Amino acid sequence: MTEYLPILVFLILAFGISIGAIFSSLVVGERNAYTDKNSTYECGFDPFDDSRSRFEVKFYLVAILFIIFDLEIVFLFPWAIAFKDLGLFGFLSMMFFLLVLTIGFVYEWMEGALDWN
């Protein structure tokens, strides 16, 4: 249990410093909010369009799909490096993982999540 004491001290210090920074910014920070702070800055020109325009959900869906398949690579690289040491169980578990991701990708494709019409 004593080997976890430095980690506990670090977590307490990190939490304390974070709360202290947030509290000090609330106490010391200015209270007046004016429109220039919330407006769009376009290299010194007047903004051409509203900065708070809405995005279509398809952009977020593609971003989520990218994150999922990017995480696949995070799991795939260490598996490829340790491939010889893992044996048959390591091979089959990674093939199952890739199969689940492939089924998910085909499902998204068939549902039309990747169509931009």
Specify the number of helices.
Answer: 4
Radius of gyration: 24 Å
Structural class: mainly alpha
When the domains are counted, the total is: 1
* CATH topology annotation: Methane Monooxygenase Hydroxylase, Chain G, domain 1
Q: Just name the CATH architecture.
A: Up-down Bundle
Measure the end-to-end span: 58 Å
Low-confidence stretches: none
Helical amount among residues, as a percent range? over 70%
CATH class: Mainly Alpha
Average pLDDT value? 83
Total strand segments: 0
Portion in beta strands: under 5%
Largest sheet descriptor: none
Helix-strand pattern: HHHH
Spatial shape = flat
What would you note in describing this structure?
It is a single chain. The chain is mainly α and 117 residues long. It has one domain (2-111): Up-down Bundle (Methane Monooxygenase Hydroxylase, Chain G, domain 1), CATH 1.20.58. It contains four helices and no strands. The protein has helices at 5-28, 35-38, 57-81, 83-111. Helix 3 packs antiparallel against helix 4. The longest helix is centred in the last third of the chain and has 29 residues, at 83-111. The N and C termini lie far apart (58 Å). The model has no long low-confidence stretch (mean pLDDT 83).
